[in-house]
Structure formats: structure tokens, C-alpha cells
Amino acid sequence: QVQLVESGGGSVQAGGSLRLSCAASGYTSSSVRMGWFRRAPGKEREGVATIYPDARSTYYADSVKGRFAISRDNAKNTVYLQMNSLKPEDTAMYYCAARISRAIWYGNLAPESFDYWGQGTQVTVSS
Q1: Which residue of 72, 79, 118, 127 shows the fewest CB atoms closer than 10 Å?
Q2: Residue 62 parent element (H or E)
Q3: Long-range contacts for 43-49 (Cβ within 8 Å, ≥24 apart)?
Q4: 3 state SS of 90
Q5: What is the full per-residue pLDDT of the chain (127 aa) written as tens digits?
Q6: What are residue 109's phi and psi, to 5 degrees?
Q7: CA 29, CA 12: separation in Å to the nearest integer?
């Protein structure tokens, strides 16, 4: 059974940092693309960052480039999202996702490209 469990969310002031973790189980996470997404209140879910199995290919939303960094430790079946210089507009529920069996590719930051999701971890940034 595939499971993705996020952790590391919390409340910080603007300019602060958080590191999110996503622990995967039930499949070989090192062979699949992984992504981080977020949904702010009243907004659509949006892609934040994607990382390929080789851990060298990464993609970011323009809104987080230079501030966020996605990484993975395949030995631990874990994906991370380091978030620096946080802004109030980064406030959202953050979700980890894995592309395991989805046939169609909609793009690196498209939620439809991923078929397994965690429950999310809340990030709140105050000004």
C-alpha cells in the first residue's frame, strides 16, 4: 500500500525558514518522480517543485525559485522541501505527491501528472 506522510509544517514569521519532509512507503520511491504542491485558502492547488529519480533534475514554480529547494534521499525514501525567505503568500497546505502509474504526463508542475498524494502539512507565514 502506497503511503506518503508529510511533516515539518508550522507557523513562522516572514523571512523565516521551514523544511518539509515526505516519507514514502509501499513502493520504490527512488524510481519515480516526486513533487510538492500547495493549496492556499480559496485557491487552486498549484505545483511548487518536482524532482526526478536521478535527483539532479528539478523544476520550480516561478513564485518560489531561488527560495525553495527540493531534494531527495532515495536510501531513506524521503523527499524534502527546504523553504527559505518565506512570505505570507506562501501560506498554504503543502502536499507531497508521487507519480507511480499515471500514464499521461501533463507537465512537471501539473497536479494531474501525479497519482498518489499525502494528507498535507500546514504552513502559515505571518507578516
Answers
A1: 127
A2: none
A3: 43/92, 45/95, 45/111, 46/109, 46/111, 47/108, 47/109, 47/110, 47/111, 48/81, 48/94, 48/109, 49/81, 49/109
A4: helix
A5: 899 999 999 999 999 999 999 999 988 767 899 999 999 999 999 999 999 999 899 999 999 999 999 999 999 999 999 999 999 999 999 999 999 988 889 999 999 999 999 999 999 999 9
A6: -110, 15
A7: 30
